Amino acid sequence: MTARSFSRRYLLGGAGALSLGLLPFGRARAAGALTVGFIYVGPKDDYGYNQAHAQAAKALKGMPGLEVIEEERVPETKAVEKTMESMINLDGATLLFPTSFGYYSPYLLAEAKKNPKIQFRHCGGLWSEKDPKNAGSYFGYIAQGQYLNGIVAAHASKSKKIGFVGAKPIPQVLNNINAFLLGAQSVDPSITCQVIFTGEWSLAVKEAEATNALIDGGADVITCHVDSPKVVVETASRRGAFVCGYHVDQSPLAPQKYLTGAEWNWLPIYKDFIAAMQAGKVPQNFVRGGLADGYVRMSPYGPGVSEAAAKNADAVKAEMMKGGYAIIKGPLKDNTGKEILAAGTAYPEKAAELESTNYLVAGVKGSV
Amino acid sequence: MNEDLGLWSVLLAVIGGAIRVSTPFLFVSLGETITERSGRINLGLEGTLVFGAMSAYGTAVLTNSPWAGVAVAALSGAAFGLLHGFVCRLPRVNDVAVGIALMLFGSGLAFFLGKPFIQPSAPPLPAIPFGFWSSLPQVRAALQVNVLFLAGAALSLVLWWAFRNTKAGLIVRVVGDSADAARAMGYDVDRVRLYATATGGALAGIGGAYLSLYYPGSWNEGVSSGQGLMAVALVIFARWNPLACFGAALLFGGAGALGPALQSVGVSQGYYLFYAAPYVLTLALLIATSSPDRALAGAPGELSLSK
After folding, report:
1. Predicted pLDDT of residue B5
2. Tell me, what's the pLDDT at B1?
3. CB A277 within 8 A of CB A97
4. CB-closest option in B16, B223, B268 to A367
5. What number is the ipTM of this complex?
6. ω before B24 within 30° of 0 (cis)?
């Protein structure tokens, strides 16, 4: 909508550019301080993806010699380039964290070429050696959290059908769906998972409809991968289904029905990047990690989790904490019958193949 | 509890979706019908809807009463309507442009004031379980009918009757069809339009309250996803007839439920196309009912659309 592109930063940017034109040295900046810019696609208190990043940004704000600037609700369009440029040129940011998936290509890559002295680290993109050296990406293997969600869901499900509300069929979402079901099947191989894609990262009415459709179809444990799980969590619990959370802890929204949830913990990653910058080094270009690295964590168990379920999940979690855990391992077929992996092979947590997942495993009802 | 309903579940979901999703469409389009029947277009109802959703949610959080939320949403909607009506009575002011300005203003103000209300949970509006006779949980869920939906349905009937049979209805229509005739009869055209726009705004505000307090039942910045704009277009599609507005709102609500429901029974290819169903439907119906020979049937004569 037009309202989005007409943001506060535009006005500020325009006014700033004007005053800069009049007074070339109008803005003095604290020398030596590092300015870091965070860019979010939605509001930063959305009980979801953006909140997870904003929590980390908030925790950084107390650090000495560091200035944190943020902008919310920046669409995945040319608008993000303008935001990046204004953060660089007007605020003096030298390290940028554009956090939404769609920012990476072509917008972030274009800005990285244009501003070789600025460091760009993107959440979720697949940086490779061919991309600019001042760009990079970081992400957490949150599918491990969804695997644990699946284990707990399997113990709670009576209908042996679980449901997943997905936004778009991109690799990260597909990994989460696959992990959720494989976790559940590790408890009971007869469990199936219905998936419904809404087509957008945040569409409240469609997410509520999708949740209702899953429950009407017999699913009794729901999880999701959308930017703000609030609607899904509330709708599911009102219908009497259990929910597993995603992004951040949503248990206050459904205290009785919330089982557990897969949460991000971005703070250690951001701290590492900033420490490198402050030491005058180039931050790492490619950062990945899961539960073992502390980039992902689980919500506390809710009242619906049985003792057996908690024990089972804790045991698997302990395995994951050792590092190198493989969720996708052979023999494994996708839901059209094609073989993904032969017996004896596996994609452990750091396998590059996981970032180009384009299949749903057998037992998932839905298509990419 | 897990009987497989197969394709029946799609039909059930569409009916349930029509009841759940249609209410905001219904209230906004009824409000816009009143406004446009008086000869003005208020495109700002999207902003009013979003602001209504925010103010209702905020009030419900603070007072713990969803009905207080509905009342505040109606009042704030009326205030937006009064503002539109007041600005439009100034000479050489274009109502469409004012509407677009108010749409941006309403959404922006709602986002600004609504920040502290994204996180807390508000008490929802009550629903009546009309599905009590069925043992199927799907049927019972689909027939959870909110009070506001029933109020909207009754209102469309009352408005349809009132436009034909009451003095107020006839005054609104004459003002909308010919300002000169209305002036000759001694009516203050601007005042009638002011009241009509305020009433329209109040109804749109109630539609917003339904969004945030019942379905999807939470306040966030994307809660309306353009429903207010679609509802304004619905009025043209419904030919300014309140009863047709009811039908059109049901149709749009049901069409919106089609995509998720089809995926849940295994029709998962091309869901983007199913999601476009409401828009395709509108296009098809508008083309089918259009005519090169005459103006839009039922359009008020004073509307800047038809002038």
Report:
1. 63
2. 36
3. no
4. B268
5. 0.88
6. no
Q: Are A239 and A148 in a shared domain? A: yes
Whether this model's pTM surpasses 0.80: yes
Asked if the structure places residue A270 within a domain, the reply is: no
Give the CATH number of the domain where residue A126 resides: 3.40.50.2300
Report if residue A9 sits inside a domain: yes
> Would you place residue B296 in the very low, low, confident or very high pLDDT band (cuts 50, 70, 90)?
low
**Cβ separation of A197 and B263 shorter than 8 Å?**
yes
Query: pLDDT at position A26, please?
Result: 38
Number of domains in chain A: 2
Domain boundary residue among A135, A153, A176? A135
The verdict on A70 touching B (C-beta cutoff 8 Å) is no
pLDDT tier for residue A27 given thresholds of 50, 70 and 90: very low
Residue of A157, A212, A336 for testing the chain B interface, max B β-carbons within 10 Å: A212
Is the model's pLDDT at A23 over the cut of 80?
Answer: no
Angle at A206 between CA B59 and CA B32, to 5 degrees: 60
**B82 CB neighbour count, 10 Å cutoff:** 16
Q: Which two tokens stand for residue B102?
A: 């108010």
CA distances to B38, B82, B193, B194, B237 from B41, in Å: 9, 13, 10, 12, 15
A-proximal residues of B, 215-234, CB under 8 Å: 215-218, 220-223, 225-227
Chain A segment 214-243 residues within 8 A of B by beta carbon are 214-218, 228, 230-231, 234-235, 238-239
Residues A78 and A176 both lie in one domain: no
Q: How far is B164 from chain A (nearest CA, A)?
A: 35
Buried b (16+ CB within 10 A) or exposed e, B113-151: ebeebbbebbebbebeeebeeeebbbbebbbbbbebbeb
Residue A251 lies in a domain: yes
What is the predicted pLDDT for the residue at A21? 45
The token duo for A354 is 């996981």
Of B1, B215, B222, the CB nearest to A159: B1
Q: Tell me, what's the pLDDT at B306?
A: 61
- At B4 the pLDDT is 58
Residues A200 and A320 in one domain: yes
Query: How many Å apart are CA B99 and CA A122, to the nearest integer?
Result: 39
Strand partners, A35: A67
Q: Do B118 and A73 touch (CB under 8 A)?
A: no
- Give the separation between CA B204 and CA B155, rounded to whole angstroms: 13
Boundaries of domain holding A96: 3-135
A244 burial level (CB within 10 Å; 0-12, 13-18, 19+): buried
